[in-house]
């Protein structure tokens, strides 16, 4: 989701386009879900590497919930699909952190391992959790303030040791902060117009022209290499 944000933010700034507050809040929710998904992608193999194989499978199961939300909210024309983000956050995404934080005997194996000091972090151009786990309290979301992150209460997660355990703690803390941001965005989400998609299916307008954006979604023709049975749709 962050690559899409860069794609739309730059033209908006160049053209001085004012984004509705509702859209900005929705973007923040999607961005933080993307952050959680990325950290879970790291957390699963990390747990397996230190000998905790079972959490690996549960973490990836919970990660799929985020992609289910992405599929429901996107890939459509005109607006964002309504999804129950709060239920997934409260029920699904809190469990991986609980499992990962409850196995202290495994985490002792990574304490003092893979230490990267401040000098190495700067010389190698490292960023993200690796940077913040080595005494550098810096986060682009705090510095740049793009979208509406300045309206939410959250803290930059950082550690001093620079080892594998410190990087683990930073990522776990970032997922917790992401959940806090999402909960605040859901509570303060501004109202806006919406439409009944079921009615739109029956009240269909004119057929789009070949050079219109909606043409690729609604005017797909079947392949000439085979015939479809009657009363069946091409997907």
Please, could you describe this protein's structure?
The chain has 235 residues and is mainly alpha-helical. The chain has helices at 2-14, 21-49, 53-73, 85-92, 94-101, 104-107, 118-124, 128-132, 140-144, 164-187, 197-202, 215-218. It has one domain (2-187): Orthogonal Bundle (Cytochrome-c3 Hydrogenase, chain B). The chain contains twelve helices and no strands. Helix 2 packs antiparallel against helix 3 and helix 2 (21-49) runs antiparallel to helix 10. Keywords: NAD, Translocase. InterPro entries: NADH_Q_OxRdtase_suD, NDH1_su_D/H, NiFe-Hase_large.
Offer a concise description of the structure.
Helix content is 57%, strand content 0%. The chain has 12 helices and no strands. The radius of gyration is 22 Å and the shape is globular.
């Amino acid at each position: 989701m962050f690559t899409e944000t860069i794609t739309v933010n730059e033209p908006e700034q160049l053209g001085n386009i004012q984004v509705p507050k509702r859209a900005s809040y929705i973007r923040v929710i999607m961005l933080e879900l993307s952050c959680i998904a990325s950290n879970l992608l790291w957390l699963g193999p990390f747990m397996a590497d230190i000998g905790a194989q079972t959490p690996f499978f549960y973490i990836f199961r919970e990660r799929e919930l985020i992609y289910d939300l992405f599929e429901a909210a996107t890939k459509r024309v005109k607006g964002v699909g309504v999804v129950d983000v709060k239920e997934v956050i409260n029920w699904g995404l809190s469990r991986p952190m609980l499992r990962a934080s409850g196995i202290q005997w495994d985490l002792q194996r990574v304490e003092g391992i893979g230490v990267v000091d401040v000098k190495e972090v700067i010389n190698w151009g490292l960023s993200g959790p690796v940077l913040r786990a080595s005494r550098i309290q810096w986060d682009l979301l705090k510095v740049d303030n793009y979208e509406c992150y300045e309206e939410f209460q959250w803290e930059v997660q950082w550690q001093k040791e620079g080892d594998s355990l410190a990087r683990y703690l930073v990522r776990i803390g970032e997922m917790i902060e992401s959940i806090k941001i999402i909960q605040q965005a859901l509570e303060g989400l501004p109202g806006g117009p919406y439409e009944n998609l079921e009615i739109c299916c029956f009240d269909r307008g004119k057929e789009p022209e070949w050079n219109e954006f909606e043409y690729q979604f609604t005017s797909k023709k079947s392949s000439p290499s085979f015939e479809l049975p009657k009363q069946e749709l091409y997907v």
